Fold this protein.
Amino acid sequence: MNGLTILSHSFRQVTGNLGMAIRVSGWLVAICVIGGGMLVSTQPEWLNAALNQNMEGMADASSNSGGSAGLVLLLTLAVTVFLFWSVSLVAIVWHRFILLEEIPQGIIPYRKEFRIGRYFWLGVGISLLAGLVVVLVSGILGAAFGPFLVSSMQGMAGGQGSGMVGIGFLMGLLVGTIVAVLYLRMALVLPAVALDDSLTIRQAWGDTSGHTWAIVGLALALAFINMVVPMVINLAFGEMFWVSLAAMGLYQWFYFMLSISILSTLYGHIVQKREVH
């Protein structure tokens, strides 16, 4: 097993079952599109200020709205909880389709035996640990490459920005790879939760120890994709806001489904001893 084999196998799981992927997650995408469209169409003052990154304008809009500021906060909290619940549900259903060949039922394929709460909290905990690593690694890299960054910034002031871009890209690639390796090794517990199997983070870490280099290669590929594709979208459609937004949304959806498939593939190969081709 190597990283590119895992990636290509997971890619085929999504593209080869594209209709099922849309069926599993389409309801959430539809809600997000409709909800986002309604929000943009009303164009509240605080949203315009947020889009323009005008913090003073956001504060003024909140103070002028009187009691509605608290309502906006509560609505934001409710939407956030719903989104996390929905994402966890989609992930569980997709894990079960890939690993059990279980066909989802209903437009929103919820079943009461799904352990959505446990999936959600484990996902949050693993993400927080990965975020802590981002802070630590970024601090170390910042101290190590500080002089190079300063000289590159001076070069940008002189019209030579290629050095800064190159160093920034390499640092982002390194941080993204490290974080992805840690996440993939710990997140093996998530498919286990979806299948109602017993697996702890410690066990997941131990089970993946013999596949470290394959996971490193996979993490490097994912970090590269996640840096290059948004950059290409921005360069291609940067001046067409709605086209760029739609392209980025499509990419984020596909990457999300691909990520769930990757965890399913890793679980199937490492824990269930399935062959990956």
Q: What stands out?
A: Residues 3-271 form one domain. The chain has eleven helices and no strands.
